[in-house]
Fold this protein.
Amino acid sequence: MPSIPKPSYKRFKPSRKQRGYVTLQTYEKVAERDNYSCVRCGKHARHKDKHGFYIKTEIAHIINKSQGGTGQASNLAVLCGPKVNSGTCHNWVDETREG
């Protein structure tokens, strides 16, 4: 059975990864819009937590990429993170039913 050559044309529609990509300019725009503070709890990126570490803030998609969310500023918000740690706002928004 002969092999079929790979098509030489590009995609017409951007992939999910490409749609949800956040550029550095958009990241800065969203962080400045939200005053570098978590929109849920209000903690600022320069404040320290109870252990003396600086609060880490992250840019989060309001509508997830898997649900068709884009990387535009209107679909992004600053939340304290990281997402994988329970008890953070980013984890609460993405992993709980209430969020």
User: Anything to note?
Assistant: The chain has a mean pLDDT of 83. The CA atoms of residues 49 and 55 lie 6 Å apart. The longest helix spans residues 24-33.
